[in-house]
Amino acid sequence: MLNNILIVEDDTFQQKLISKMLSTLTLAKITTASNGQEALSKLDKIAEPELILCDLNMPGMDGVEFLRIIASRNLDSTIVLTSSVSNDVISSVKKMVLACGMPDILSLNKPISKIQLEQVLLQSTEQVRRNKVTEKVLFQPVDDEIITGFDQEQFVVFYQPHINVKTDIVSGAEALIRWQHPKRGVLTPYFFLDQIQQLGLSHQLTLKVINASISACARWHQQGKGFNISVNISPVDLIELDFIDNVIELLKQYQLPAKFLTFEITESDIGPDMAKELEVMCRLRLHGINLSIDDFGTGFSSLSQLISSPFTELKVDQSFVQKMLTDSKSYAAVKASLQLARDLKLKTVVEGVETKAEADAIKALGCDLFQGWLYAPALPENEFLSWSQNHNKKYIDEITKQG
Length: 403
Fold this sequence. Notes:
Elements: E1 4-8, H1 12-23, E2 29-33, H2 36-43, E3 51-54, H3 63-71, E4 78-83, H4 87-99, E5 106-109, H5 114-137, H6 143-151, E6 155-164, E7 170-181, E8 185-187, H7 193-198, H8 202-222, E9 228-233, H9 235-238, H10 243-254, E10 261-265, H11 274-286, E11 290-296, H12 303-308, E12 313-316, H13 318-321, H14 328-343, E13 347-351, H15 356-365, E14 369-371, H16 381-402
Parallel strand pairs: 1-2, 1-3, 3-4, 4-5, 7-9, 9-10, 10-11, 11-12, 12-13, 13-14
Antiparallel strand pairs: 6-7, 6-14, 7-8
Helix pairs in contact: 2-3, 8-10
């Protein structure tokens, strides 16, 4: 349930219209302001609103400046842009808000309807519920907990399926680290990765994941499943002493052919160790191991690094995928990335596929592998194998019926 709503709108008619429609949909207290400066003044006097509807083009302090300022206040409010400006401006404002550290925001084009506002209220109410749950769930582990977690093998590998776009069957998986906390349950890297880096345990964790992943993939092959496995590593891992020798030894130990292993690398800016990184990457390729450039196009991976490094695969970041059907620039980024990969004869993976509409759009653009919640989340090994078997069986049954 919402208690407070703030409308920032300079047009008196629009302000009254939105306020009236909202009053028929919610019992929340509605506060209005005609520009950013007045809105800031009102925020100092009222309880934090769960929902803020904000125009952009206003006299005095406009909506862009207002949003930049409230970003520093760390509000939990759902922000909705209510403006008639062009979509490219709306898109840029949303990116600015994200860069300022605020969550993604919504937008409504004028004229605004009652149905649109009803949907916004539902989304805002859900966000309030999530915020309350998050307050209960979030925690900061102490260093001893993480060290104990390492000693007691609480850090385990889950597997998210890769789906062949042409055949719709499972072709492999990405290995993703999880913490099976004795009290908190399964935790994602959000809760522990930064702290592990501060403790100097990052490379040790990477080796754990590589060991578990190669071992698991070898077991799959023994069961007749010719799956591939992808593992995330950093440029720092590449230059660690004996890294490549450790990897080759593990492949021999578990008798897994190197061609089934892919290292996903998020390239940092070229630095003093770039020569060493390239040396190790070239040696990995000589041994038959595949290399994927991860998070391509996000600012962490650049075109020059793609061309200068011996990559065999390009992975399109989910941040573009999630917006490609509503933002023309994100769609163009996905399309351009896939075309670039084809021109460079690289295999393509698109991660973060959550809807059938996204999958259909990506398939039309041309892609090799899907990865995302539309199919399955990251799963423990036994659940991954069970899910993969059921998924592939459905495909085989459908082909059999068609035949």
